[in-house]
Amino acid sequence: MTIRTMGFCVVAFWLSTGWVGAQRAEPIQPISPATIDDPRMMELGKKLYFDPRLSRSGFISCNSCHNLSMGGSDNLKTSIGHNWQKGPINAPTVLNSSMSVAQFWDGRARDLREQAGGPIANPGEMAFTHELAVEVIASIPQYVQEFETVFGTPTVDIDKITSAIAAFEETLVTPNSRFDKWLSGDSAALTPTEVQGYEVFKTSGCVVCHNGPAAGGTSFRKMGVVEPYRTDNPAEGRVAVTGRDADRFNFKVPTMRNVELTYPYFHDGAADTLAQAVDVMGRVQLGRRFSEDDNAKIVAFLKTLTGDQPTFPLPLLPPSSDKTPRPNPFAPTSTR
Ligand code: HEC
Ligand code: HEC
Predict the structure, then answer these.
(1) Cα–Cα nearest to 224, from 284, 271, 283, 267
(2) Domain that holds residue 96
(3) Domain count, the chain
(4) d(C-alpha 11, C-alpha 318), whole Å
(5) pLDDT, average across residues 102-120
(6) What residues flank ligand 1, with Cβ below 6 Å?
(7) Are residues 208 and 101 in the same domain?
(8) pLDDT tens across 155-164, in order?
(9) pTM for this predicted structure
(10) What beta strand segments (E) does the chain contain?
């Protein structure tokens, strides 16, 4: 699913479940459960997502930095990559990322498939090459068999690897948050304080940017609309992709879904707590200083956006064969 416009989709339908209520017409819509088109492809992608053999060290998997036990993030200011390198930017969650207009803070990858090739070959992350990653996977007989079942041919290539990972990532959605229950007409799902927090979130203008089912991910916006945002982080956002000066410090608006779990906040990871992040947003985006009470209400609302986390038995990875190139944990990034 891709949300291309900021238009507030107004959907109203009657639910036929236990309590009958009307879908509320709001700038944030409920998240639908994942539909799995190709379960075998998804299962293969799940294994690859957890497989550290896609990295040079043989130690770093997608899950190292997008830990599904921790809201699909690493809870670090900036990630740690190959050889304990300090990453340049905060790792966004993979949860619900299929709903974003594009991937990465600056949107440089169009979709999840294009994105998934990035970290494998990024010298500061998994520090491998696509060729070597393919070589490793192709040396593991159970993988080759699985690629044949899923794709009809046993050849392993990077496109198949990234397609499978993307198919798995598309299932990483988090429906049934308390806010979604409220949106679907269950008024008892939120406390009065949480509803008031949502009202402040709406009336003060947060929803202008944080909207759609993911409450974010629908646009690129300037960080520091009213007041400049001060940071030591050199990232300049969207300008890196478009080269347009007007895009300097424009970042993809992050999702508010599961934001309770994905601290610290902002592209530089500078805000440790939700209260801090809300305070900064109020000041730099809207020119507002929230009272402690309003800040606490917004935070209470944001915590209602935590949905059902993906749960499944841990995938069992097929063993390396005698021919599988061995991990090289301390290899300098530049060597083969
Ligand atoms: C070393 C840590 C690290 C590893 C390993 C890693 N990532 Fe990431 N990931 C990041 C960081 C940091 C970003 C943000 C980079 C940016 O925006 O410039 C990111 C961004 C993403 C995004 C974009 C999310 C969004 O909202 O824009 C997705 C999706 C993603 N990674 C999936 C993966 C997958 C799949 C793998 C495994 C193939 C992987 N990552 C491996 C750290 C990591
Ligand atoms: C003009 C658009 C805009 C408005 C208005 C806005 N935000 Fe944001 N928000 C963003 C952008 C862009 C980012 C990412 C900025 C960055 O990391 O540099 C962000 C980041 C956040 C984050 C951190 C999320 C994360 O995962 O790092 C929170 C929390 C947040 N906003 C809450 C709010 C609240 C609450 C309001 C209203 C008081 C609000 N925002 C108003 C655009 C906006």
Answers:
(1) 284
(2) 39-169
(3) 2
(4) 45
(5) 94
(6) 60, 62, 64-66, 79, 81, 87, 89, 91-92, 94, 97, 100, 103-105, 112, 115-116, 119-120, 125-126, 165, 252
(7) no
(8) 999 999 999 9
(9) 0.93
(10) 80-81, 85-86, 220-222, 250-252
